[in-house]
Amino acid sequence: MGGVYPVFIMKALCFALFACAFNLLIGFGGLLSFGHAMFLGTAGYVSAHAAKVWGLPPEVAILAGTLASTALGALTGALAIRRQGIYFAMITLAMAQMIFFFYLQTPFTGGEDGIQSVPRGRMFGVLDLSNVLVMYYVVLAIFLAGFLAIRRIIHSPFGQVLKAIRENEPRAISLGYDADRYKLIAFVLSAALSGVAGATKAIVFQLASLTDVQWQMSGEVVLMTLLGGMGTVFGPVVGAFTIISLEHFLADRGQWVTVITGAIFVVCVLAFRRGIVGELAAWWAKRRG
Amino acid sequence: MVAPDPATPDPAALEPVSPEVEVLAADPTVRTFRIATIAMVAALALAPWAACTRCSL
Amino acid sequence: MKHFKRGLLSLAVAAAFATGAAQAQVSDNVIKIGVLSDMSSLYTDLAGAGSVIAARMAVEDSGIEKRGYKVEFVSADHQNKPDIGSGIARQWYDTDKVDVIVDTPNSGVALAVNQITKDKGKAFLVSGAASSDLTGKACTPNTIHWTYDTYMLANGTGKALTKAGGDSWFFLTADYAFGHALERDTEAVVLKNGGKVVGKVRAPLNTQDFSSFLLQAQASKAKIIGLANAGGDTTNSIKQAAEFGIVKGGQNLAGMLMFITDIHSLGLPIAQGLVFTTTFYWDLNDQTRAFAKRFAAQDKGIHPTMVHAGVYLGADHYLKAVEALKSDDGTKVIARMKAMPTDDPLFGKGSVRADGRKIHPAYLVEVKKPSESKGPWDYYKVRATIPADQAFRPMADGGCPLVK
To answer: C247 and C346 share a domain?
Structure first.
């Protein structure tokens, strides 16, 4: 097989969708969640369980995982949007930790072994996902659907109100918008799309493990989004591909991956705060204007 | 006299809308968005077939 | 991906030579061994770089390269994350032409690689992972589990200690699936052999302060305190037990998952009196001592753990089977390895069962007092030898679908 290794791109695509979903919340809603791993992981566990134990076909398993994340998003969101800034972040982090310990203890997740050997099955009864290329194009389609949905959300009236709330919440309220409702909907949408990413990832890797619910994963998605460009449409995709490639190249360096990504984070925050895509867009605008 | 709705903040306390619109400006226009999306999709769709000799991803 | 053109080229070359050389059936003319291990975190001393050294020694000792075969190595760090480990394994099999993966401590990673290896029809030689599921309900025709497993540890330590008079137990258990499983298995063995469990306490994973748990264990007056935990939890609980004078007070600590490198880093003043089961000790006979000397010279003085010995044994037997078959087809080689008796300098003569379990004797060891030790790495007193046929779980009890 020539070309770029498909499994690698599938992983990057899942994380790109995850980062896009996260970006919907922070880039357009101005809400920094530090617990987004819980949505990725929950959907992963539920879809892996659905596919392996209940024997559901992959599309239903992914749907089940997404629904679970959506429900968790509604619950967490209802609690978290009552507070702002650091308190919002702390509530999401605390919820994510509770969810992590739940998955660590509960028997169906298999503890630190994770749910293994998840069957990929046949999508819609015809697409044999055990073929790498079929799986690849299914993942690409899922990613594109999620990506375009986010773009649509951002440019809808709903998205405009969300941006207004991000810029000046009291003014948006004074204009008659129910800010809490908008924030909650944004939170649930973000959780649902993170869920799609997590569920797809579980089917691709035939595995759901604690890595996806750990707090490090919540930090990683913040890093991807910031590096690529928070509040830009393509930023999270670029950020996710950059970070996943780095991890891939440096896999034999072990824990150095963490050090290097940390250093990149510092450089990014200090030197180019708009992220890769944000800086490029600003440079382009300046050249033209 | 009707008491003001507590959910409505005092207009005097309102700050002007933040002039910081750089992040919004970073959003590609519809045309660039379409071009960029098509380029991205094409690149991803062809990636497993791309015969790149030196990429060691 | 890596080696795209080279892949095509070597395919062509392999086709051209298909009827000629002795290594005709060996894919792309190379036996490629992937050492997938923990290279940077808690298992790095007991497996890690040492496993690469052990596999290389097996290749040297077999002399297979002199007979026209080419052997290559790759190694990678799975960071103890099943998703990273499975990603590496997939890539090795799909694009890097790896024929066999060895070692792989961390049961989660090993179970993931186990499945991928089966799907790809390659070979997986497990040494570092503990889960007895690998030869139980998750067994495959492509995996052999060499060194030890959780059942053997629980059974060996539980049975031998209870029979030797340690008939009252208190468990200090790490509060997650692995700890629960170890506690449950060990408790069953203790009860079956006429012992009793006077108490148990569950400590959260990665506990820093074990004092309240250890005080309960001390107050229970149990003869044996079973540590159903692993890694940092085990070493922390042992250190703190030494501070409380638990061993000096006449109670014995029984570790479930201990390696000689753990004892080395704890030091004898702290680890003395600890009892546990191992399947390999470098100071057993002349051959193991010679192996340890060569090994230590290459691995910064670290003496081989049972995991390293298992990697050596696995690679040794694998190469013999490849040569006998003149093929490196994973499924066929594993089938051949199960059919052939094993014979290597470290474990002696032995065999691999149909469920993929290699069986050999196990040793119940006690850590020496500092006054008894002649120097670094002279740490164990062998208290009992458990014969091969009793050390491991009977094949019928494992639920392996291959043996039905």
So the answer is: no
Q: How far is C39 from chain A (nearest CA, A)?
A: 7
What is the gyration radius of the CA atoms in chain B, in angstroms?
A: 25
Q: Are residues C131 and C182 in the same domain?
A: no
Q: Is the pLDDT of residue B7 over 70?
A: no
Domain assignment of residue C162, given as a range:
157-278+361-391
Instruction: Please tell me whether residues C261 and C184 are part of one structural domain.
Output: yes
* pLDDT given at position C10: 47
Rounded percentage of chain C residues whose pLDDT exceeds 70: 94
- Note whether residue A188 is domain-resident: yes
Distance CA A283, CA C201 (A): 61
Chain A residues in contact with B45 (beta carbon < 8 A): 137, 140
Residue C9: what pLDDT? 44
- Across the interface, whether the CB atoms of C95 and A112 are under 8 A apart is answered no
> Can you tell me the mean pLDDT for A184-209?
95
Residue among C39, C82, C138 whose CB faces A207 most closely: C82
Nearest Cβ partner of C177 from A1, A111, A252? Answer: A111
Sequence-distant (≥ 6) Cβ neighbours of residue C142 within 8 angstroms: C114, C117, C118, C121, C122, C123, C124, C330, C331, C334
ipTM for this prediction: 0.80
Q: How many domains in chain A?
A: 1
Closest CA to C68 of C22, C31, C20, C13: C22
Which position has the higher pLDDT, C11 or B3?
A: B3
Interface partners of A (3+ CB pairs, < 8 Å)? B, C
